[in-house]
From TrEMBL:
GO terms for molecular function: ferrochelatase activity; heme binding; metal ion binding; peroxidase activity. It catalyses: heme b + 2 H(+) = protoporphyrin IX + Fe(2+). The keyword Signal applies. Involved in the recovery of exogenous heme iron. Extracts iron from heme while preserving the protoporphyrin ring intact. It comes from the Bacteria. InterPro entries: Dimeric_a/b-barrel, Dyp_perox_C, Dyp_perox_N, Dyp_peroxidase, EfeB/EfeN, TAT_signal. SUPFAM superfamilies: Dimeric alpha+beta barrel. This is Deferrochelatase. Its cofactor is heme b. Its EC number is 1.11.1.-. It is found in: Cell envelope. Binds 1 heme b (iron(II)-protoporphyrin IX) group non-covalently per subunit.
Length: 374
């Protein structure tokens, strides 16, 4: 229920212990006016500063303003605590250069080299209508009403400057981002997040998550955010054997221990044999995603979703995968390429894709999202 500090070196919502709920929204800028874009980012920062502290989006508030004008807050979070709300903003490649090559805001020269559209991967079933975006806002909180309220008010403030391109709700964190958190389970019933990068990993975060001095100046201390909406084929998974499920992941379903080990946090050891065979199959998800074989690490911060059913009697459910890394090319893209032989692929389909550069943290009350860029 506590407030997460809004100001800092890095944006909150990256190594902040993952909250339980997500409302993610991708937006397109509908104006060519740089001034309007700057004003929006300033207004958003002010509203985010207030809402993450548990206050109304505007200074007057939901019910204390002029009764003949629309209130500057929509009201559904009145009386609710901050609930760990974090708001994290990112800039998509199309903010710098539109898909048809226009440089609307004079930002083309400032696009960081790693900020390019993700390549396509074998098996992708990406729907462009729920992919990409000029801007994104990741709202995480321990109360879904608080996350939805925050996104709704930021979208309201953006009227005339941005329009919502797509959005996604998530209901259960599928990773831990701090050693103090118990590992949650994903919709396949497995503990997820055991071997994740965590807030306590200091220098490893500098190496893999935070943008350093080898990238655009304005992005130093920021990070790249990759989202993938991954449909999980629940029905085939549920009719596969426990043994098949465990060999697909490479860990046991009960404790989450690596196959061949005893406890959840026992080290992953690819040399351990059981009955003469490697305990962790070479086609398992953990084998292929592990830094030893993928050659890199990412910080995972995804959420489960169930968007109803698909009209064919199957749950439209899965993982809204979110990863943070200092370079998408040596982060998500490298891991995902290594997963092409992953046994898990039989049970999942990627249906949306996006990449954003998240600027560093807002330092103080005079600072605003993207100031160093704009
Ligand atoms: C580990 C599930 C997609 C990267 C794991 C683990 C599970 C899991 C159960 C083991 C526990 C852990 O260490 O966190 C899933 C499911 C997915 C999915 C159900 C799709 C619906 C992805 C994708 C990537 C990825 C798309 C990146 C491209 C990783 C990494 C690890 C991991 C890096 C840690 C491996 C290690 O160091 O041992 N995943 N995952 N996962 N996953 Fe996934």
């Amino acid at each position: 229920t506590d407030a997460v500090p809004f100001h800092g070196e890095h944006q909150a919502g990256i190594v902040t212990p993952a909250q339980d709920r997500l409302h993610f929204v991708a937006l397109d800028v509908t104006t060519d006016s740089r001034e309007d874009l700057v004003a929006l980012l300033q207004d958003w920062t002010a509203a985010a500063r207030r809402m993450t502290a548990g206050q109304d989006a505007g200074e007057v508030g939901a019910v204390d303003g002029d009764r003949y004008a629309p209130p500057d807050d929509t009201g559904e979070a009145i009386g609710l605590p901050p609930s760990g709300l974090t708001l994290t903003v990112g800039f998509g490649p199309t903010l710098f250069t539109t898909a048809d090559g226009r440089d609307r805001f004079g930002l083309a020269v400032r696009r960081p080299a790693p900020l390019v559209e993700l390549p396509s991967f074998p098996g992708d079933q990406i729907d462009p209508a729920i992919s990409g975006g000029d801007l994104c806002i990741q709202a995480c909180a321990n109360d879904p009403q608080v996350a939805v309220h925050a996104v709704r008010n930021l979208v309201r403030i953006g009227a005339g400057v941005v329009s919502v391109r797509w959005s996604q709700l998530g209901f259960g964190r599928t990773s831990s981002t701090s050693n103090g958190q118990a590992t949650p389970r994903n919709l396949f019933g497995f503990k997820d997040g055991t071997a994740n990068l965590k807030a306590e990993n200091g220098s490893t975060l500098d190496r893999f998550v935070w943008v350093g001095d080898d990238d655009a100046d304005w992005l130093r201390g920021g990070s790249y955010l990759v989202t993938r909406r991954i449909r999980m084929l629940i029905e085939p998974w549920d009719s596969s054997s426990l043994d098949e499920q465990q060999r697909t992941i490479g860990r046991t379903k009960g404790t989450g221990a690596p196959l061949g080990q005893r406890a959840e946090f026992d080290p992953v050891d690819f040399t351990t044999r059981v009955d003469g065979e490697f305990a962790i199959p070479e086609t398992s998800h953990v084998f292929l995603a592990h830094p030893t074989n993928a050659g890199t690490a990412i910080l995972r911060r995804g959420y489960s979703f169930v968007d109803g059913s698909d009209g064919l009697g199957r749950l439209d459910a899965g993982l809204f995968f979110i990863a943070f890394q200092r370079d998408p090319g040596t982060g998500f893209v490298q891991v995902q390429r290594n997963l092409r032989r992953d046994a898990l692929n039989e049970y999942v389909r990627h249906t949306s894709s996006a990449v954003f550069a998240c600027p560093p943290g807002v330092r103080d009350p005079a600072d605003w999202w993207g100031r160093a860029l704009l």
